[in-house]
Specification:
Blueprint: H1 4-20, H2 31-35, E1 64-72, E2 80-89, E3 92-103, E4 106-118, E5 123-136, E6 143-157, E7 160-167, E8 182-192, E9 195-204, E10 210-220, E11 223-230, E12 235-243, E13 247-256, E14 260-270
Antiparallel strand pairs: 1-2, 1-14, 2-3, 3-4, 4-5, 5-6, 6-7, 7-8, 8-9, 9-10, 10-11, 11-12, 12-13, 13-14
């Protein structure tokens, strides 16, 4: 018999993860760089941004790999471990991502395969196929789901970028398990060679509209400061990053009005 205590703990962790997420829990973390900017990333070039708007893959010209760990409120059971690799291939780029959330009694594994390419001089598009596996100890059934997501990237001017992304544009009537549909739109501008600012709006099935703003400032050579705000859970965000020749290290912190701070750490390796 599955104990009442384990059921209660599992439900509690699922609840905490959903109220704490920067957006929907089925979408992988935005990496520490994105976390420091309140997850404003669907229009900004960056390793983890590639998996939030696959059209950004079109701007990648380097073979690279990354790992990220997100620690929600210093609770190890709510940790998310993510790894990815991006592979340039001629006129397009490919991406592979794997993410693990949870602990022994409740865990969700996510896998994705993506590609992105230029459609014209100022427009790019991308697509990703996703697989989800949820496992719960005891008498509950395990669940598997497959869906896709797609994005567009538009450059109306050289220093302005617009991102549009949709996750799971598939009616739930066609599947056995529920997956939310999430639509994100945003715009960013390079105000100077060292300062970027952006804003996003997100709407998800059954949830209120979320607004986000964020910035990135290169305070010193190779050293970046980031900040942001999200209306979800009245979250203020802060982050920093250091870029070396072939290694990028990022740290990000996001507050929650009641539950505390979520911290993130990322390493991105430029292989060639």
């Amino acid at each position: 018999m599955y104990s009442l205590h384990k059921i209660t703990v599992s439900v509690l962790f699922v609840f905490l993860s959903s109220v704490a997420s920067g957006g929907d829990t089925y979408i992988i973390p935005a990496g520490a760089a994105g976390s420091g900017m309140a997850s404003v990333c669907i229009m900004k070039d960056g390793f983890w941004s590639f998996f939030h708007n696959q059209a950004l893959l079109s701007e990648n010209r380097s073979l690279s790999a990354g790992i990220n760990y997100e620690n929600r409120f210093n609770i190890s059971e709510l940790g998310t471990r993510t790894a990815g690799i991006v592979i340039p291939a001629g006129g397009t780029s490919l991406g592979i991502v794997y993410s693990h959330f949870g602990y022994n009694n409740f865990r969700r594994v996510t896998g994705g395969l993506s590609c992105g390419m230029d459609l014209s001089e100022n427009i790019a598009a991308g697509l990703q196929v996703d697989y989800f596996s949820e496992k719960t100890s005891g008498e509950y059934k395990n669940r598997q789901s497959i869906t896709f997501e797609a994005g567009l990237l538009i450059h109306p001017k050289e220093n302005i970028s617009i991102g549009i992304h949709i996750f799971n544009p598939v009616p739930n009537s066609l599947r056995k398990t529920f997956l939310p549909t999430v639509l994100r739109t945003g715009a960013g501008i390079e105000l100077s060679s060292v300062l970027f600012a952006g804003a996003e709006a997100e709407i998800s099935s059954g949830k209120k509209l979320i607004l986000r703003t964020g910035f990135e400032y290169e305070a010193f050579k190779k050293f970046r400061l980031r900040g942001g705000f999200s209306t979800e859970n009245t979250s203020f965000c802060f982050g920093l990053g250091y870029l070396m020749k072939s290694l990028q290290l990022d740290l990000g912190f996001a507050t929650h009005e009641k539950l505390g701070v979520t911290s993130s750490a990322s390493l991105v390796f430029k292989i060639r």
